[in-house]
Structures are given as structure tokens and as C-alpha cells.
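Thread title: Can someone regenerate the structure for this chain?

I was given the following input by a collaborator and told the matching C-alpha cells would be attached. They weren't. Posting the sequence so someone can regenerate them.
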Amino acid sequence: MNVAWLAPTASGFMAGDYISTSIVPGTPKAFPLFAAAGPPAGSLLHEDMFTADLRVTGGSIQAGSEATQGPTAAPLAGTLTPTAF
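Best answer:
Regenerated them for you:
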């Protein structure tokens, strides 16, 4: 994939806004979602969404249990600076 095939923004080419992983509660199934671009047709961009049916392994806490509800990570210290390609 050529980075220039992604949508241009004021901060560079847009790539990271479409990344996600959903885990089905009570099962070991995870579905990552990500975008990949193909060559544009003139000014028309061509970006598709993809997923896969994956199995989550490890750990003792099941998705959807009380221990996994709500925020689980502490805020990061400092300031994050986005990187444009």
C-alpha cells in the first residue's frame, strides 16, 4: 500500500482513525478492524475495511466480566504528538 493513497489531511495522510478490535463477551473471539488503501481512480480514493475471526488466548479474566468494565489504564504522562507520514 502506498501511503499517498490514503486521504490527505492538514496533519498528513489519514491512516490510524480506523483501527479497532472488538472482543465478543464470553467467547475467545476477537475481530480486528483496519483500513487499507488501493490506488485512487483520478480524485476518487479507494479505501476498504478488513477484519478477521481471531481467537484470544491467555489471561484469566473473560471479556464482559465485572473486572473488565470501565477504564483499565492509567493516563499517559506527558504529551503525545501525532506523526504524519
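Residues 18-57 form one domain.
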